[in-house]
Amino acid sequence: MKLQLWRNATLVLTIDNLNILIDPMLGGKGALGAFPMTDNDLLNPLVDLPFSDQELAKKLSNIDAVVVSHLHPDHWDAKAIELLDKNIPIICPESIASQITQQGFTNTIAIHDHIMWKGISISLTNGLHGTGEIGEKMGTVNGFVFKKAENSVYVIGDSIWYDRIAYEIDEHQPQHIIAAGGAATFSVGDPIIMTSEDLIKLCQHAPEATVWVTHLEAVSHCKENRNFIKEKIHEQHLEKRCIVLEDGEEVPLLF
Known about the structure:
alpha/beta; seven-stranded mixed sheet; globular
């Protein structure tokens, strides 16, 4: 298996030469505009994808399926809807499948709990996209566990650290965990994705797993950047198994 971070939450997970695109935000720098309740006027995404339009087209032609965790625009944007082949399998939670179908996609595969796709086990997991009123406004989010034979990868999705994440780790025993860092926070309320403290708790709960940190330096409400998180990881001597990915970086997933 291998993993490539494109930008923010957009990843390609390769399993048995099958390329699975996760949470595509494919628009150019600034295409989403300013986000509300961020106390800034920065235009999102803050950075372009780490390759040209021509390279993007080539990469998309090699995608075998798309997985969407939820419909926030930094995970599923208008450019993704425009560029993706309408016949490509779109694997998503049951709760958003009809909306994706209404956008013109003809091969939507809804997950209630678990599916098998081309020999890969894909399980739906739960997340918590913030607490209190902000958490309610952010709505339901999910993650996924991809398993082939005894090898498993847990993509947490947009979630803070809470007891359900610990439960999912205990239940699925993933060797690799992909977490959204950056402590994204609006002008009111607490963080809606993991802080560096959350990432450390995650590492402590899963001492045998490698943790890959994404969702950094691409959207305007994230409060912690790569250097800050790396420093916190280093303070806890976790740098060998908690790795902050750069945009465009591709890594092998070793088991």
